[in-house]
Design a protein that fits this description.
Radius of gyration: 24 Å
Distance between the termini: 48 Å
Helix content: 25-40%
Number of helices: 11
Number of domains: 3
């Protein structure tokens, strides 16, 4: 059972494009009796195992903002959120489930899916608490203003995404009046991407819910010896949504596989202005602020 549980957790949390992060020379680390190249059709060793073989990418998922957001889902007749699991999976086909994970999990752990028939991949529905937000029902945002800034930011982003999905802001504020004072943040979060020239020109106009952002981070640039004239030049300043500004600042502090698992700030340490600016522009595109 322990192996089945570990296998299920591995499949649950592994990103669906994990193969893109496997080293090209991964075969060098294969066990002695493994095939020389894991990419060969008859290879016996797969660094990811069958764990990456998840459900169809076209299968619906739980919406972002829910506790189980991102997981494969079906919608039960009761209107709640239902995680789709293979028959014999976590729940098991046996009504008196003993806690094992069934034939599907055994096949996943062994890497042999060929012995399972199509009917083995039908799905049971596991009912979870909570309803899927719809255009008529607001997300689960607390009625009272959260006490901490991180909590407020999280709910503001959830509200902004609901507005982007077509929910009127007044529907959200009816059950969470504190959002009224944050309407500018919610609305600006959904600004469409703009050209670099538009973002630079917007600096001159103060707009609620937005911040002036340095394309090349000012503190790191100043610490490296760049002058304030260069750092605060019009070419380096743009006006962006405040919530996006917070997301970008957090992105600079998080280890990133694109930079050998260094944080972007660590990667940029000692780099010239051109490299810093290229990264600064790319992150603006990544968060939907700058047009592609």
């Amino acid at each position: 059972m322990r192996g089945g549980w570990i296998g299920q957790q591995r499949r649950r949390w592994m990103r669906n494009n994990a193969h893109l992060y496997v080293r090209q020379d991964a075969h060098r680390f294969a066990p002695p009796d493994a095939a020389h190249s894991w990419r060969a059709p008859d290879a016996r060793w797969d660094p990811l195992g069958a764990a990456e073989r998840k459900y169809s990418p076209n299968q619906p998922r739980v919406p972002a903002g829910n506790r189980d957001g991102g997981q494969w889902t079906t919608v039960s007749s009761g209107g709640g959120i239902s995680i789709a699991v293979p028959a014999g999976g976590v729940v098991g086909a046996d009504a008196e489930n003993s806690g094992t994970f069934g034939d599907f999990d055994d096949a996943i752990d062994s890497g042999d899916l060929g012995g399972l028939a199509d009917e083995d991949f039908t799905f049971n529905e596991v009912q979870l608490a909570g309803d899927i937000p719809t255009g008529d029902s607001p997300p689960e945002i607390p009625e009272e203003r959260p006490a901490t800034s991180p909590e407020r930011t999280s709910f503001l982003k959830a509200a902004a995404r609901r507005v982007a999905a077509g929910v009127a802001l007044h529907v959200l504020t009816a059950s969470a009046p504190w959002l009224l004072t944050q309407a500018a943040l919610i609305n600006s979060y959904n600004d469409p991407p703009k050209s670099l020239e538009e973002l630079q020109q917007a600096v001159a106009t103060d707009r609620p819910g937005t911040d002036i952002h340095h394309i090349v981070e000012q503190s790191a640039a100043a610490g490296y010896g760049f002058s304030r004239d260069v750092i605060d030049s019009p070419e380096n300043l743009v006006r962006i949504p405040r919530l996006k500004h917070q997301e970008i600042n957090a992105w600079y502090q998080k280890p990133n596989p694109d930079y050998s698992w260094k944080t972007p700030r660590q990667y940029l340490s000692g780099r010239n202005w051109e490299v810093r600016r290229a990264v600064g522009l790319e992150v603006l595109r990544k968060f939907g602020v700058l047009k592609q």
